[in-house]
Structure formats: C-alpha cells, structure tokens
Specification:
With 553 residues, the protein is mainly β. Helix content is 3%, strand content 49%.
Amino acid sequence: MRRNFKNWMVLISAVVVFLPIAVFGWEYFKDLGGGLDDGRDVDMCADGGLFITGRSNAWAYPDGDFAHNWFDHEMFLIKLDPNGEEEWIRHYGQTGWFIYYSDTIGYYDAGWSVCATPDSGCIIAGKTQSPNYTDPWTGFPDDCPGNDNLLVVRVDKYGDTMWTKSYGGYYFDRTWCVRLIPGTSDFFLVGPTESYGPDMPSTDYENIWIIRIDSVGNIVSQSYWADDTRSGHTDVRWFCLTPDNGIVLVGDTDDHDTTYSDGDSTVTRRICKMVIAKTDSMCNIIWSKVIDRGYFHYCRSVCPYYGGGYLALTYDQNPSRTWMLLFDEDGDTVWTKYIGLDSTGTSVVANYRMIVQAPDSGFYIAGSGGGAARILCTDKELNTRWEALYDYGPLTELLNSCVMTPDSGCFAAGQSYSRYPYDYSDIYAFRVDRDGEDFAAVKETKVSKPAEISISISPNPFNSSCKIAINCHSRENGNPEGRAVLEIYDLRGNIVWQTNLSDSKGRPQRDAKRQWSSGTLVWTPDKSIASGIYLVQATSSGQTIAKRIVYIK
C-alpha cells in the first residue's frame, strides 16, 4: 500500500467523525535543525511511548553552516507518546570543533542503539570522538578528538542524564547495539575494537568486543572474538537475547580490499564474510560460524525463530539483495531464502535492514526499495502477508530499525531525503497495526472542571490486573446525566469492557462481582484480550474523561 501523506490526512479526518473516540493514523517527521538527521534505532518506552535515537548536525553550528563540517554530530533522543506526539528531544555528547591544519574538524557523537528501561527511561549506545571521552591523537592539542570510543548514556523518563560512560582505548572502538538482560539490571553491549583482544592493539585488524555492564555502567564481564584468518577487520552489527540470558550476535569478518587482474585491467573490490556467534550470560563464546560467499556479504540483524533457532538478515553486494538464513541452536544452517525480489526472482525490489518477531509466528522486516520506506510482514516461512510502503517525493525514504508494539503492530524509524532541504536527511517514523494499516491511536482527554470527575490507574503498564480509581460527583434526583459509566476501548474504538458506576439515581453502585468499592474498580482482562494500549473512559454528569493504559501479558 503506497501512502500519500496529504490524502491520508484527509481520510483520517473523515474517519474520526464516525468513531466513538478520537482515532487517527500518524507519521512523524523531524528536521532538527537543517543539517543531517538520521533515525537509527527505536524502542517502546515502558509507559507506552516510543524512543528514537540517532545522529544529527542540529546542535553543531548555530549559524546553520552544516556544510562547513559534515562530521560534527550529536547523539539525540526523541520521546513520542503512543499517538506520535512529540514529548521531548534531548541531545548528548560534546559540541565543538578544532583546527586541523587548515580544516575545521568537529566532534562526532552518534546514537546507534536504544533500549528502554523499566523506569520509563532508556539507555543509549553508540560512538564518540569527543575529547571529553577519548584520548587525543598523539602530538595534537588536548581539544583534538581521538579515535572512536564507545559512548553509553543512561537517562530517566524526562531524558535527563543519569550517567555517561565511555569505553575503549587509544584506537578505534565502538558499539552498535545495547540490550537489557531479562531478570537483571545489567546490559549487553557489542561492537568492534582495535584496542583489545587477540593481536591488539592494531589498526590493521579489529576484534568483536562483547561487554556486560551493570546498572551504573561498570563492566561486569567481557570477551573478544576474532577470525582465525586475521586478514581483515571484524565487526558486529546486532544481537538478540537467548533464553539462557546469553546473546546471538551477527556481523562480518575478514573485511578487506582485494586486488586482482581482469584482462588488461587491475580491479580492486571490497570483500567480507558473514559471522554469527553465541555467548553465555557472562560473554563467553559458545560457538561461532563464518559464511564465505566470495564477495561483500555481511549480516545486519538477527532475532529468535519461533520454535527455536535464530533468523538472520544479511546483505549481499553481488548483486545488492537480501538473503535470510535460519540457524539452529548449534549455529548450523537449516535453510536460506532470498527476499525482496520480483516474482521472477531476478530483479531486486527492496533491501531490508532489520528483522523482529511479529504476531502469529511471523516477522516484521524494515528497509527500503524503489525510493520508499518499507515494512514487510511475513509468516514463519517468510511468505509475505502484507507490505506497507511510504513514499513522499522524488528522493529516498528508508527504515533502519523497527520494533513490535504491545498491540502486536510495528513501529519503525529511519530517514527521508524527500523533504526540504534535499541535501540532508530528516528523521522519519511511522506506526502500523498488525494488519499493516495506519495505527489508530487513542488520546487522553481532560475535563474543564476537574472537581466534577477524575480518574487514576495503577499500575500502568500492568500485566494481570489494575486498579481504576474514579471520583465522580454525580447529579442527584434521578437525572439521567447523573449516571456514572466506565468504558474501556481498544485502539479501533471497540468497547472491550464496560460497567455502570452508579444506579439510575446517581448513587454509587456496590457490585461485588465488579469489585467496585470506595471509588476503586479492579479490571482483570479476559484471556481473549490481547496485549496493547487501551483507553479507560469515565462519563459522569455529562462530562467525560479518558486515560491511556498499557496492558502487557
């Protein structure tokens, strides 16, 4: 389905009129300041909102001279509510630049991965070249940025920094992915390092660096992996958690240029091999596998496969296409399949970057193709269920990351080049439901006279039952408007539960079955109720108030 933003907004306006609560589809665009803005990773906040992290020039040059120095980036974090409304934007790292001979060199900080935390905050991981967090190059001033180091920032629910840590040595080190370890307050980080591990330090090779840190950023354990050939760089792009609290990581190894003769010509091309490896909970390598296609071939993302094993998404450069591999628990290949090709299997239609689990044993896969951002939904065997396309102009829209939402839909983010100014990208995100249709969000409402009616819910989010406290000052003498009613809606405006909180005369209802007592009701969703976002709406004295609630099984 190809969307046109303006036409879709007209359709939204028409739909809202006929639904019992305010619902609308949404997409999010953001130009942070005129320069480059990239949305690199996303996650669901514990309060039902959404996080986007990436890199931006916005805070580098107040005068807007972004072309003066392309490499002065900041790590940013955007918080959206479930409706796609922007709550706040923060940036982290170090702004500034130094003079390198006659060139102005900026400090390069970027957020490559974000992971929500139970306190409704998150942790951001990426890279830094800022002198606050790196060792300056030998022989240069102290304000000179050094080689890349890992940059990790923990923030609270307002985006305020709780702590900042950098990891690495004098050489090139960075991280691409961070995840919370279930049942603990620790996190895994993975990335390449030129500073540590076998044969390091070296500028000719890199190792994979696997780190476990605690809740305040202290290293708990770490390990390294290196290809036995040692003829090129090694990188890790992503990882997923395993049931035993280890990880399965993917990336590439033996990345180097090769030169050969082709007739009378000398040809130089880049080649690499795919790598997949598994660790235990303390970062120890259990197994590793290398797949050599004979050309540039690396793995972009990986997720658990339904029923066991791991599904990996790779990029082939010869030709440019997406290859999927299913590995069993021991790392052996079960089957492979190309996706994103036309019906003849010869022409590339789309390239994909991220894969996550979807409902009904399927998968969500995010990427781009034909200038459009794409979300592909498949079944377990990667057969297409539906694909949503978003195209806004003559240039390119693409998605770098996606996540399954509590309502079993999908939220994805990346960048758009079709917005002004064309020289730079803007942040782009959207959300769809499980059927690939635009997400029908729900809005909280407030009454003009708070003393008339109020509502509070705890806990929120919840996973089994929640308490709904309602304060209603209903009209008396049998006035029908004096009746107090509670209704709970799903995202499409369907009532999933309702009850009267007062009788026909406006007196409080005392119903043991509904557990209504002293203004507090306990809602325990039926087993048929799916995880997701719901709207709790109370009506009394002709006034209505609604609050959003997140149910996670």
